[in-house]
Amino acid sequence: MKQTKKNIDFYLIGISNHSTPTWNDEVFKLINKSTIFSGGKRHYQLVKSFLPKNHTWIEISGKMDVLIKQYNVIDSSIVVFASGDPFFYGFGNTLQRLSPNAKLKTFPYFNSIQLLCHKTQTNYNTLKTVSVHGRDWSALDEALINRVELIGVLTDTKNTPSKIAKRMLQYGFDNYSITIGEALEGNNEHIEQLDLLACTDKVHHSLNCVLLKQIALKQKPFGIPDSAFIPLANRTNMITKMPIRLSTIGVLELQNKAVFWDIGSCTGSVAIEAKQHFPHLKIIAFEKRTECASIIQKNTEQFSTPGIAMVIDDFFSLNINDYPIPDVVFIGGHGGRLKELIHIINQLNPLVRFVINAVKESSSQVFVEELTQLNYTISTLVIQVDTHNKISIHSAKKINK
User: Fold this and answer.
1) Mean pLDDT of 219-234
2) Based on the domain organization, do 96 and 192 belong to the same domain?
3) Are 67 and 87 in contact (CB under 8 A)?
4) Residues 176 and 316 reside in one and the same domain
5) Is there a domain that residue 386 lies in?
6) Which of 102, 113, 269, 371 could pair covalently with 396 via S-S, beta carbons 3.0-4.6 A apart?
7) Are residues 204 and 263 in the same domain?
């Protein structure tokens, strides 16, 4: 028995900047028999002369929930035009997220990063693509900290090539060249390769993408010497020593975690070391000393560690619901209010992993007693560095029942 052909809810057609589309016969036939079309304002300007005279155009302009409601009242297939490949940071992903049961068929084109690689004859076998288009810097930061050799970046009017170059230089990533592809395949196409410093003063066409190519190796430290950190004034010993710091990073078990809080960050040494080894992490460094703001910032810059969020305030005065819920918390300082701190965090996330480096026996006692009562299991590692006091690295994990 012949099966009935399933209805397609959305046809996704990837287009370039060409004034004359390079579609195949199947796409032209689809357009000629369709009446409902959708896409951005720029897409409409590119394709409207090829659409049937009596057509309806639904503009994609920002509010996705409103757009989906418009789509839902239509009982015929909708042809959607999108830039390049609809599933490359594109509208296809949005449709799948907001209309998971919709049936899609795609006719993709090259995405902009592919086009820039083609036009610059760049081997992109090892390319890592990230987007700062309407997003924060986290994906780019992770790629840079990981020392990725070739990075493709999707930009927007806020996070421009100039701004990317300035941020990279701020954090010491001067070992890349930057190639900017502007209005690719359009009438104003322009491609140029620059050093980062030259790029900081340039203004580019709003429609652009970027290739970052590593031109020199940049070493990534495994254990930063204590003396390399900018210290708190007159408190040079107030830093988690490197052997303790690396042991603490191991005990934190950050491999599969998403959000890490460093409470009592001081110079930022633990947060920086954690970000170096696990650049995917969203790290928030809490510190009440106002003078530490510039110290942490300078340390993140000199050790090429972007992406650590700083909160300079008394932790106990904060509305902690304003911050991403942590998977792991390191307690570097508690101002004598350890018990209160433990209960605040436990209420926020009763499955959080706690770690503390305790010098005083009283801190060890409070940590162990309070978290044991909260049904955590405690592990302890005791380390002494040179003639410094012994440090008890306590970790607490919720017991699964």
Assistant:
1) 89
2) no
3) no
4) no
5) yes
6) 371
7) no
Integer Cα distance of 260 and 336 in angstroms: 22
Statement to judge: residues 91 and 196 lie in one domain? no
Residue range 360-370, pLDDT digits in tens: 999 999 999 99
Q: Which residue has the tokens 């040179």?
A: 386
In a domain, 2, yes or no: no
pLDDT band with cut points at 50, 70 and 90 for residue 1: very low
Q: Which residue segment(s) compose the domain that 131 sits in?
A: 114-214
In a domain, 3, yes or no: no
Q: Amino acid identity, residue 144?
A: L
Question: What percent of the chain shows pLDDT beyond 70?
Answer: 97
- pLDDT at residue 241, rounded to an integer: 87
127, 70: one domain: no
**Sign of dihedral through CA atoms 88, 92, 97, 102?**
negative
Q: Identify the DSSP state of 231.
A: P
CA distance 152 to 210: 6
Provide the b/e sequence for 75-97 (b: ≥16 CB within 10 Å): eebbbbbbbbbbbbbbbbebbee
- 3-class SS of residue 299: helix
The closest of 337, 332, 335, 349 to 397, measured between CA atoms, is 349
Single-letter amino acid, residue 360: K
Q: How many domains does the chain have?
A: 3
Q: With pLDDT > 90 as the criterion, what percentage of the chain qualifies?
A: 87
- Structural tokens at position 382: 């005791």
pLDDT at 5: 41
8 Å CB contact between 36 and 55: yes
Which uninterrupted H or E stretch holds 80? strand 78-83
pLDDT at 266 over 80: yes
Tell me the average pLDDT of the chain: 93
Nearest to 115 by CA among 46, 179, 54: 179
- Taking a C-beta distance cutoff of 8 angstroms, is the pair 239, 231 a contact? yes
CA distance 260 to 324: 9
**Residues near 394 by Cβ (< 8 Å), separated by ≥ 6?**
354, 355, 356, 358, 364, 367, 368, 378, 379, 380
Integer Cα distance of 154 and 177 in angstroms: 16
CB contact set of 138 (below 8 Å; sequence gap of 6+):
282, 307
